[in-house]
Amino acid sequence: MPSLEEALAAHPFARGFTKEQLRILASCLEGESTWVPDATLVAAEGIADHCYLLTEGSAVISAHSPGRGRRSVQTIHAGDLLGWSWLFPPHRWAFDAVALTPIRAIVLDAAKLRSAIDDDTSFGLEVVRRVGATVADRLNATRLQLLDLYGNRG
Amino acid sequence: METAAELPVLDPMAPTPMMVLQRRDETYDTFTISLEPIEPFPFAPGQFNMLYLFGIGESAISISGDPAAPRRLVHTIRRVGNVTEALSRLRPGDLVGVRGPFGQGWPLQGARGGDLVIVAGGIGLAPLRPAIHWAISHRDSFGRVAILIGARTPADIVFVDEVQEWRGHFDLDVEVTVDSADSAWRGPVGVVTQLLPRVEFDRADVTALVCGPEIMMRFAAGDLMKRGVPSSSIYLSMERNMKCGIGLCGHCQFGPYIVCRSGPVFRYDQIERLLTVREV
User: Fold this and answer.
1) Nearest 10 degrees: Cα torsion B123, B127, B129, B131
2) Closest partner residue to A75 among B124, B182, B190, by Cβ?
């Protein structure tokens, strides 16, 4: 079983970090969390005080709609970053994340991470690049979903 | 690309009447009809037929059945216009005129020996289904085989029982995602291209077969190339307004190509540039 630091270094989010940047990232480690299926990882409007890096399982980003129940938007999997609300004010989650399967995630202290980003701009740039890539991937995917592509092919 | 070249097409412009054996609803707007050819009807996976309803019109429809069952000709059709609407009203015993099979199919013979990645969006699974049947019946010819399927909602997944059966094959990697779902859906939510990072394949020795809406195919091809798959190993099935089926009328012209004759399956590097042209 790898140590938490080793698991962090092996996570796709940490790929390409220098040793020093990995050390800074590891200094923000808070621990590891697990969830059972149907458990809520984060809830919309909750304070985004942690950054989660999924190492096992799948979760769905969703929103609850009165009278319509939970509507799922996107699924995330082991190797993914769970959201970016921890990085940008007002640091509150915009959507729910609900476990589809048993989940394990590395937990980073968001306040420490934000402080480290401010203190070391080269580290901060690398973190923001990775978060930006995640945002871009999910934005592109969402745009494709919005196009409702499958309605058009005869 | 492959054709059923051995098929004697006596007169490609004369429809052959065939009787409807079975009709089954796939989704609220998509159905499958099985026809009984008088003679065995060999075809290559990826080819299409022109289905003719006497007095109404003709429509190009991909063959969606098993190429190993040439006595049962299967088409899966979405209701989008007059002809397909009328086809949806067919019942067992009715007659349909059939011309075909036409076009170039999926390059399955050439893909042997390597990995196979099949990416289907919506009813794009229909032209890929014969290729999946072929890959399953020649499973030893391939390395890894991944089948990635995207649909609008869980209710829009076609061949749903069969997809479930494919998931039971230990040597197939089958993933299904939907664009939108409620909490009853336990599978992935998102566009089909998001499944690509989740499957393993040898990027230097893989053939990718992609069928779905054009934008989806362009993004799927782009994501495959990001994974290191050469554009010459990616194949797309294009849909254009096919009329004659034999390259004479020009209705389905796509840049320098006549889709009914040179396609509908194209290698991505042949058509990549054309996919970004607003009107071809």
Assistant:
1) -150
2) B190
